């Protein structure tokens, strides 16, 4: 994981306007995103418990709480419109507003992934010959994937809080291990020896694994937007290795 | 120039984002102030009002068929610099201009050069519409007549009409050309002043906050006109409205305390400025 203490200090890009209300509006927009992120982390945690530990109540908890993230997403959109209309943002402020709009979308979709996992957990429960407990190696593999994905997501939200380039690079560096964890889980689920699971159950588990991996991918998207805000560089579709090396070389 | 500023290439403006994050406040111009085929070319221009230096070593080109906007806080020197471009500062006692300002390669401060025809080649539109206390027709006809640009009344009529058409005013005034120009609305008066400037066939049009006295609709009409005029003229515009600079210009120059801080493509300046002073100003953080 990235040593955040080594991060280059980044100025408070959203603050210091002559019109203080403008600072407050940008801070509010960022606060909505951070709150959404916190919800998603909780939702993903509950969804994993529902899937791996077979805690049905946690799955219902996820489904009940999903609208909170959706409503916050609407609030973020409204705030974006409001800032554009009132302030006609330019330069870093424009980048913040554009990035926050995209980040809100990624965070909301990450929340959807948690809901999807909770749905799969309930479906597993309801399938004929229901699955009371996952094999231990599958549990461990799901937890490993969850650790990677959720850690990346939490870091992406922290990166948004401080527009932290170094933290964003750390997320990019976590992409290969995330990919490996996903592959390992798919390998286990595809194992021909796994006769204790029905094909339908395997599909549910594969769907859940894919959703978990996607949470990590959304974190990467968010990290790209953080770099866009902080440095003004659109790093989407850029070679990750070269990007990491270049920016690390610049001191991030 | 300090050590950090030396790291900034004056032509390429190679200032890294990491340097910016460190909060550099260099006074070296960031960005390329040159263009491939300049209509006007200014190098190391200093302007003094008595002992006070208003412009400090500014170098900047104005391209053909471009709108260059100059922005910056009050007192930054942008209007002073604009007025150097057609020697309007000659009329101010104690004002001294050094450096080189060339129009199509010719030094406009050459002693042998008469500033009167220069001001026809480099026309100017001011903050407040200032039509002459004459008829609409005479406002436009005055310049061509004193510069001897037409041979007879028919040619003059045609020039007045074409100038008013280019200024987007013909349809509104064609039936009342003999009425006073001062009787028009503010926006129409400003377009009349633009027609007056166009009538003497300038190469460059300087505009000093041309819309600051106009309402939003009149402003929009003048901005549309500026965009159309770009096809035939080079335009340098001083504006306090950053949205206007973003809307009408292809390149933007940011001035601060007499220095040209940054110049570049307008899109770049307003989305990703490279100098912290530029960013602070255009985002409203300027204290």
Structural class of chain B: alpha/beta
Distance between the termini of chain B: 24 Å
SSE order of chain A, as H and E? HHHHHHHH
**How many DSSP H or I helices of chain B?**
12
Q: What is the 3D shape of chain B? A: globular
Approximately what portion of the residues of chain B adopt beta-strand conformation?
15-25%
What strand order characterises the main sheet of chain B?
6-7-8-3-9-10
Order of helices and strands of chain B: HHEEEHEEHEHHHHEHEHEEHH
Q: What does the main sheet of chain B amount to?
A: 6 strands, mixed
Secondary-structure arrangement, i.e. CATH architecture of chain A: Up-down Bundle
Percent of residues of chain A in helical segments?
over 70%
Total strand count of chain A, please?
A: 0
Largest sheet of chain A: none
Content-based structural category of chain A: mainly alpha
CATH class of chain A: Mainly Alpha
Radius of gyration of chain A: 20 Å
Number of strands of chain B: 10
- Indicate the low-confidence ranges of chain B by residue numbers: 1-26
Number of domains of chain A: 1
The name of the CATH superfamily of chain B reads P-loop containing nucleotide triphosphate hydrolases
The CATH superfamily title of chain A: Phosphate transport system protein phou homolog 2, domain 2
Pfam families (chain A): PhoU
Family (chain A): Belongs to the PhoU family.
Keywords (chain A): Phosphate transport, Transport
InterPro entries (chain A): PhoU (IPR028366), PhoU-like_sf (IPR038078), PhoU_dom (IPR026022)
């Amino acid at each position: 994981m990235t040593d955040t203490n080594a991060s280059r200090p980044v100025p408070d890009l959203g603050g210091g306007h002559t019109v203080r209300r403008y600072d407050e509006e940008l801070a509010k927009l960022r606060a909505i995103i951070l709150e959404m992120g916190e919800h998603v982390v909780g939702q993903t945690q509950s969804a994993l418990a529902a899937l791996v530990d077979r805690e049905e109540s946690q799955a219902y908890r996820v489904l009940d709480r999903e609208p909170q993230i959706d409503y916050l997403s609407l609030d973020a959109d409204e705030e974006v419109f409001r800032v554009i209309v009132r302030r006609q943002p330019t330069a870093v402020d424009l980048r913040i507003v554009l990035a926050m709009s995209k980040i809100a979308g990624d965070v909301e979709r990450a929340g959807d992934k948690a809901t999807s996992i909770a749905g799969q957990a309930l479906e597993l429960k309801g399938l004929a010959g229901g699955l009371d407990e996952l094999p231990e190696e599958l549990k461990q593999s799901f937890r490993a994937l969850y650790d990677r994905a959720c850690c990346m997501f939490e870091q992406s939200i922290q990166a948004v809080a401080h527009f932290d380039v170094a933290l964003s690079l750390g997320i990019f560096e976590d992409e290969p291990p995330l990919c490996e964890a996903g592959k390992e889980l798919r390998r286990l689920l595809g194992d021909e020896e796994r006769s204790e699971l029905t094909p339908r159950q395997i599909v549910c588990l594969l769907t859940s694994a894919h959703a978990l991996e996607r949470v990590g991918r959304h974190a990467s998207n968010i990290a790209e937007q953080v770099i866009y805000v902080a440095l003004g560089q659109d790093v989407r579709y850029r070679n990750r290795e070269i990007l990491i090396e270049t920016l690390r070389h610049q001191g991030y | 120039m300090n050590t950090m500023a030396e790291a900034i290439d004056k032509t390429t403006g190679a200032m890294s984002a990491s340097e910016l994050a460190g909060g550099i406040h260099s006074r070296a111009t960031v960005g390329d102030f040159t263009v491939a085929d300049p209509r006007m070319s200014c190098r190391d221009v200093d302007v003094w009002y008595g002992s006070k230096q208003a412009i400090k070593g500014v170098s900047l080109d104005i391209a053909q068929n471009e709108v260059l906007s100059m922005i910056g806080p009050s007192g930054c020197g942008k209007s002073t610099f604009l007025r150097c471009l057609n020697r309007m500062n000659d009329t101010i006692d104690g004002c001294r201009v050094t450096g080189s300002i060339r129009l199509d390669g010719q030094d406009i401060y050459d002693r042998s050069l008469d500033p009167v025809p220069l001001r026809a080649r480099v026309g100017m539109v001011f903050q407040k519409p200032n039509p002459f206390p004459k008829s609409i027709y005479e406002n436009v006809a005055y310049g061509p007549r004193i510069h001897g640009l037409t041979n007879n009344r028919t040619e003059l009529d045609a020039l007045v009409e074409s100038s008013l058409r280019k200024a987007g005013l013909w349809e509104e005034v064609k039936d009342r050309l003999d009425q006073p120009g001062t009787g028009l609305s503010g926006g129409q008066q400003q377009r009349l002043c633009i027609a007056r400037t166009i009538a003497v066939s300038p190469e460059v049009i300087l505009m000093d906050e041309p819309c600051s006295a106009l309402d939003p609709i009149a402003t929009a009409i003048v901005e549309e006109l500026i965009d159309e005029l770009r096809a035939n003229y080079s335009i340098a515009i001083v504006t306090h409205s950053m949205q206007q600079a973003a809307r009408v210009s292809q390149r933007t120059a940011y001035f601060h305390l007499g220095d040209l801080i940054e110049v570049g493509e307008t899109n770049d300046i307003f989305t990703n400025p490279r100098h912290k002073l530029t960013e602070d100003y255009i985002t409203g953080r300027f204290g």
